[in-house]
Structures are given as C-alpha cells and as structure tokens.
Design goal:
The chain is mostly helical. It has one domain (20-79). It has helices at residues 8-34, 38-45, 53-79. It starts with 7 loop residues before the first helix and ends with a helix.
Length: 81
C-alpha cells in the first residue's frame, strides 16, 4: 500500500480540526461515562452541583484518553517526516 506524503498544510488542517473538536468530544464522552445530559454537564461545570469521587475519576480518565489521542496524532505526523 502506497502512503501519501503528509504536507505541513495537511498537518495544520488535521491537527486544528482535532483540537477544535476536543471540547465537544470531551463533553460527549464525560456525559456518556457519567450518565449525564448536556445540561447536567454544564451545571456541574459551573460548580452548581458537586462532583462525586467516581465522577472525578471518570472525568480524569476521559481527559487522559483524549490527550493521549491528540499526542498519538502528533507523533504520527512526527514519524512520517
């Protein structure tokens, strides 16, 4: 299988797209993991309601996973030089 070289422009567009989607992706994953609606997510984000230890652990896990995904994308572009 032949691979297409990745240009700097493609890198910029792809990484920008990934980062722009990150807040929505984070919210969606946290809502799914914690069983929350979007409204509950935003109420909890404002500090109006407490976050349990279990919810805290899930939120951190989601954040770690998404950051690792972004890092993996970056590493993929680095290795294709």
């Amino acid at each position: 299988m032949e691979t297409t070289p990745i240009s700097s422009h493609n890198l910029l567009v792809y990484l920008h797209s990934e980062l722009v989607q990150l807040p929505k992706t984070f919210r969606d994953h946290v809502c799914r993991e914690c069983g929350w609606s979007n409204a509950t997510f935003y109420r909890k984000a404002k500090g109006a309601y407490p976050i349990s230890n279990a919810e805290r652990d899930k939120i951190l896990s989601v954040g770690d996973k998404l950051l690792k995904n972004v890092s993996s994308v970056s590493n993929r572009f680095k290795s294709s030089r």
